Amino acid sequence: MEPIDQNDLPEIVPTHIAIIMDGNGRWALARGLPRLAGHRAGTENLRRVIEACIEFGIQYLTIYAFSTENWGRPQEEVQGLMKIFEDVIDRELQELHDQGVQLRHIGRLDQLDPVFQEKVLHALEYTRHNRRLVLVVAMNYGGRDEIVNAIQRMIQDGVSADEVDYDLVSKYLFTAGVPDPDLIIRTSGELRGSNFLIWQGAYSEWYFPPVYWPDFDKDQLRLALEEYSHRERRYGRVAAAKDEQS
Length: 246
Ligand code: IPE
Ligand code: IPE
Ligand code: MG
Description:
Blueprint: E1 16-20, H1 24-30, H2 35-56, E2 60-67, H3 75-98, E3 101-106, H4 114-126, E4 133-141, H5 143-156, H6 166-172, E5 183-186, E6 205-207, H7 218-229, H8 240-245
Parallel strand pairs: 1-2, 1-5, 2-4, 3-4, 5-6
Helix pairs in contact: 1-2, 2-3, 3-4
The chain binds 3-methylbut-3-enyl trihydrogen diphosphate (2 copies) and magnesium ion.
One 3-methylbut-3-enyl trihydrogen diphosphate binds at residues 20-22, 64-67, 70, 190, 192, 194.
């Protein structure tokens, strides 16, 4: 991969990018390949995007790998995906660790195969002191499920109604301690959130590149960052320039 010229970076780089890695199936279909070939190409691409994020100085990258709704896909695809995820951990863990990547998981781990759970827990433990990039993997994740889980645990902990505020809710989400995403990217041209980070993304900027996930390369990421650096985040307030004139 061509190294990035540090003078060539956009002025404002987001701290946290979240990606809905969509379009693997259509990428494969367009090539006359089975859907699983698209998922394998997607994981190959992920490695390149992680490297590019490190070079661009991104601190947090969240990736949507498998949603709570994806269980509704044909069994063959679900099983194939689980096998691919397992292979990725086996193959990539050491490399990710050497690159300084800290792995985190969001979603329901306890509903997954016990051997896979063990591998994930080991990967989290193994990389927990790394600081270069935090890679948050949303696997068996759903935003509504996350909120239900948070409410259940607050009740179990005996939290009283007047203690509940935005900060407390954030602490009970799977993402506790991770800053909200600045930029959410969804590849493949679909214009929806599909149950991803519905609380955390309240004020994220959205970006929809018209390419399938396996084709989302470093140049595509650079375009996303350039676009982001020109966005004005107002959080419900008025534009800064207008503010000064009034
Ligand atoms: C995203 O690609 C990957 C997962 C959901 C695991 P898709 O499998 O949704 O690809 P399309 O949307 O069918 O093209
Ligand atoms: C969202 O994509 C989930 C992941 C990328 C893991 P989907 O392809 O499952 O979403 P819908 O069904 O098109 O909304
Ligand atoms: Mg899809």
